[in-house]
Structures are given as C-alpha cells and as structure tokens.
Amino acid sequence: MSTSDPAASSAKPQSHREWLTIPQLAREYHLGRDKWRGFIVRGELAAINIANDPHSLRPRYMVSRAAVEAFLESRRVVPPAPKPVRRRADAATPRYV
After folding, report:
1. pLDDT at 91
2. Which residues touch 64 (CB under 8 Å, ≥6 apart)?
3. What's the number of domains the chain is made of?
4. Domain annotation covers residue 9
5. Is residue 91 part of a domain?
6. Per-residue pLDDT for the chain (97 aa), expressed as one digit of tens each?
7. Which of 7, 27, 72, 93 has a 20 to 30 Å separation from 78 between CA atoms?
8. What are the phi and psi torsion angles at 19 (to 5°)?
C-alpha cells in the first residue's frame, strides 16, 4: 500500500479534522475569535486547553466538531406558535351580562 494512493489515504481515520482551533472556527462559521472564546470561557461551548501550561494566561483551545454541533443545536431559534386570530364582536351579537 503506497502513501500516494488516494483510496488508501481516505480509508484512514481523520481524527485531526474532528477538532478545530478558534481561528478555524472563526473562518468556518464567520464569527469572530473573541465570540468563540467567550462561549468557551462562559462554559457554553465545551473545549480542551492544549497549551503547554494549562494555567497559563494564554490558553490554546481545541473544540470537537460534535461539541460545536451540540452548541449550535442548543442555540437554535424556534419560531413562536402563531397567535389565535381574535375576531371583533359584531354589534348584532347579543351580550349577556
């Protein structure tokens, strides 16, 4: 099996594609890096810190595609149910008070 064979390379699991960095998220979803960092810091989006020192002031976050999909699903907008149409009472309709 040669490494130049395209069928052989597609058969291998692409685990590096399952994780995204913040710049990759920003490019793919057209949303700023600071927005994504905010979602992570507030705990809305699950991520891991791959920095050499986990307590450093400069974290390097990686986010799984599954976490991004779950995050986007949780923020899905559901349209409200339609309000019932209220009909105006006719003057000919008797009112029993």
Report:
1. 66
2. 18, 19, 20, 46
3. 1
4. no
5. no
6. 444 444 444 433 446 679 999 999 999 999 999 999 999 999 999 999 999 988 888 999 999 999 999 999 999 998 889 988 887 766 666 667 6
7. 27
8. -115, 140
pLDDT at 87: 76
Other CB atoms within 10 Å distance of the CB of residue 53: 9
Rounded to whole angstroms, the Cα distance separating 40 from 63 reads 9
Structural domain boundaries enclosing 62: 15-74
Tell me what pLDDT residue 3 has.
Answer: 46
Query: Per the domain annotation, does 23 fall within a domain?
Result: yes
Assess if residue 63 is contained within a domain: yes
Which contacts of 5-13 are long-range, i.e. CB under 8 A and separated by 24 or more positions? Answer: none
> How many residues are recorded in the chain?
97
User: SS in 3 state form for the chain?
Assistant: CCCCCHHHHHHCCCHHHHEEEHHHHHHHHCCCHHHHHHHHHCCCCCCEECCCCCCCCCCCEEEEHHHHHHHHHHCCCCCCCCCCCCCCCCCCCCCCC
